[in-house]
Amino acid sequence: MTNNDILRSVRYMLDLSDAKMVSVFALAETEVQLADVQAWLKKEDDAAYRPCPDVLMGYFLNGLIFYRRGKSEDAPTPSIERRMNNNIFMKKLRIAFALKTTDIPDVLQKANFTVSQAEIGAIFRKPDHKNYRECGDQILRNFLKGLTLTHRPAANKPA
Question: Could you give the C-alpha distances from 121 to 1, 101, 126, 135, 141, in angstroms and in order?
Answer without folding.
Answer: 20, 7, 10, 11, 18
